[in-house]
Design a protein that fits this description.
The chain is of the alpha/beta class and 471 residues long. It folds into 3 domains: 8-97, 3-Layer(aba) Sandwich (Rossmann fold); 101-314, UDP-N-acetylmuramoyl-L-alanine:D-glutamate ligase (3-Layer(aba) Sandwich); 321-462, Protein-Tyrosine Phosphatase, Chain A (Alpha-Beta Complex). Helices cover 34% and strands 21% of the residues. The chain has helices at 18-30, 45-49, 64-67, 84-91, 99-106, 126-139, 175-180, 198-201, 204-216, 230-241, 283-298, 303-306, 340-348, 369-378, 390-400, 412-422, 444-455; strands at residues 11-14, 36-39, 56-59, 72-75, 95-97, 113-121, 144-148, 165-169, 184-190, 222-226, 248-252, 258-261, 264-267, 270-274, 321-326, 329-333, 355-359, 382-385, 405-408, 428-431, 469-470. The strands form 4 sheets. It has a 7-stranded mixed sheet, sandwiched between helices. A 6-stranded mixed sheet has the order 15-16-20-17-18-19, with helices on both faces. The protein has a 5-stranded parallel sheet with strand order 3-2-1-4-5, with helices on both faces. Helix 14 (369-378) crosses helix 15. The relative contact order is 0.10.
């Protein structure tokens, strides 16, 4: 659905966050006279009215009857199409898409492919992978756009300059948008699949299905897939077994491609470099470097020559970000961690030091039993639970047992204080909550900023994602 095709249609915007505002501006640039309706929260009405747009109707009713009054609803990514009101409206003919779908439709070539787009998704590591891809391409002299779920809506990108490549992060809320756009990505990268966002998708099976639509339904020219992830590997094998598939699979994480052997980065039998000193915390992030290099090769560039440029990569905030030391303790902000699997990966980075782990937040229905069982054999010095699902996690840890001190905090401040009290000098206070921040905080960024302030660091210095836009 190109924006010009909305002309003459009954169109609403649902949500007035950054994505919603970007969609509004894009539609107004193309169709200044199109009547629009904005469905938003009561606290957003005044901001929308300040636009002074006489053709914009502002409404706080997003019930099924109101939604059914439109041909097209351009919704913000955080709004699930599986909500009962959206499902009811869809049955009556309303079509729901997102700004990502509009952008891809606008950028499809005559062959249907959005040229030089590299779409990155996965449960864990997709932001770092996307940013690292942009960094390496730019270090090789290639003008590259960095946008998407990482912090800059695609519809906010300017028309000029035209980049040589687009590094695009997609959440599971957006992968279906690419498929629904009618455009095919040039390259799709899938890093891993773990249970996540069950409250939005409704079930683990639907989450996996929606996540993989970037490959199964969007049909990229090339799919760069992780041979080490069982779900992703099964998808790749199915594609290769289909003689009619329009997608070619490029693997990473296996011996004939980009892979790690200990700390050594290898391209097949060629040893390229030692990764131990790279600014990529955790083995999983160094594995993501393999994904990036495979994608660079798929674009037709010399990945072996660009690989050493990873040494100058600036790690992203809120992702295993070492804030520094205060009173003999090191503070690490991994607020982006929203699954127990991400928390386990974070702990593995500090296995040689005493760690007080802060876990818990919004309860989205994930099972913490496997995490608790892991703690029985590879536990940190202490675990402090907090947040809405803190009592559930606490109970699972008590049931599993283990050689760690177990505490509970009423909130993040209390959890930090508890961690300080139990750690010896030289220890690590690790915020890797394994759960979303909703409730006390607007998002994981706000949670990470509060943690930094509690630890005695400047929140303003730890929140900027470098390199967004076209450079």
């Amino acid at each position: 659905m190109r924006i010009s095709q909305l002309d003459g249609q009954r169109v609403a915007l649902w949500g007035w966050g950054r994505e919603g505002r970007a969609a509004y501006r894009a539609i107004r640039r193309a169709l200044p006279a199109l009547p629009l309706t904005l469905l938003c929260g009561p606290d957003e009405v005044e901001d929308a009215r300040a636009l002074g747009d006489p053709r914009l109707v502002i409404d706080t009713d997003a019930g099924p009857d109101r939604l059914a009054a439109f041909d097209w609803v351009i919704k913000s990514p955080g709004i699930s199409p599986y909500r009962p009101d959206a499902v009811a409206a869809a049955r009556r003919g309303t079509r729901f898409i997102g700004g990502t779908a509009l952008w891809f439709a606008e950028h499809a070539g005559p062959d249907g492919i959005a040229a030089r787009t590299v779409c990155v998704t996965g449960t864990k590591g997709k932001s770092t992978t996307t940013a690292l891809l942009a960094h390496l391409l730019r270090s090789g002299g290639h003008v590259t756009a960095l946008a998407g779920n990482i912090g800059l809506p695609l519809l906010e990108l300017p028309d000029h300059p035209v980049p040589e490549a687009w590094a695009i992060e997609l959440s599971s809320y957006q992968t279906g948008d690419v498929a629904d756009s009618g455009a095919r990505p040039d390259i799709a990268v899938v890093t891993n699949i773990f249970p996540e966002h069950l409250d939005w998708h409704g079930s683990q099976a639907r989450y996996v299905h929606d996540k993989l639509r970037l490959v199964t339904d969007a049909r990229p020219r090339i799919a760069v897939l992780n041979a080490q992830d069982p779900t992703v590997a099964a998808l790749g094998r199915a594609i290769q077994a289909d003689p009619g598939s329009a997608t070619v699979v490029h693997w990473y994480g296996q011996a004939d491609g980009w892979h790690l052997e200990g700390d050594a980065l290898r391209r097949g039998e060629l040893e390229v470099m030692d990764t131990a000193a790279l600014p990529l915390p955790g083995r999983h992030n160094r594995g993501n470097l393999c994904a990036v290099l495979a994608a660079i090769e798929a674009l037709g560039h010399d990945a072996v020559a660009l690989a050493p440029r990873a040494a100058s990569f600036q790690p992203l905030p809120h992702r295993l970000h070492v804030l520094g030391e205060r009173d003999g303790l090191t503070y690490v902000n991994d607020s982006i961690s929203t699954t127990p699997f991400a928390t386990l990966a974070a702990l593995a980075c500090f296995r040689d030091r005493p760690v007080a782990l802060l876990v818990g937040g919004h309860d989205r229905g994930l099972d913490w039993s496997e995490f608790a069982r892991a703690m029985a054999s590879c536990a940190p010095a202490a675990i402090v639970t907090m947040g809405a699902n803190g009592p559930l996690i606490h109970a699972r840890l008590q049931e599993a047992g283990g050689a760690f001190a177990l505490g509970a905090g009423d909130d993040l401040a209390d959890a930090v204080a508890t961690a300080r009290a139990v750690l010896p000098e030289g220890g690590v206070v690790l915020l890797s909550p394994g759960a979303p921040s909703f409730g006390p905080y607007r998002d994981y960024v706000a949670r990470g900023r509060h943690f930094a302030a509690l630890a005695g660091f400047d929140p303003e210095a730890i929140s900027t994602i470098p390199g967004l836009g076209i450079h």
